[in-house]
Amino acid sequence: MFDVTWVFIRLGGFFFFGGLMLDIEIAILIMGLVVLHMNFGLKTILNDYIHINKIKIFLVFLIRLSSIEIGRYILEILL
User: I need a surface site. Which of 2, 25, 43, 55 has the fewest CB within 10 A?
Assistant: First the structure.
């Protein structure tokens, strides 16, 4: 059967890499938004399921550290 989701995923990747060749600023903006989305999602999960403050503070620190590292790796790949 024809699956339109499969087509959209392939087209998204094709347009992303095509846009990467044309304009690097848009790709950096998209990657920044992906890291921000990941950061907000992980903090929401953390606040919903972790109730001990010491563990929560430590995990927030790890989320911030991982966001910085992922952002650095993305910039390293793009530049």
Answer: 2
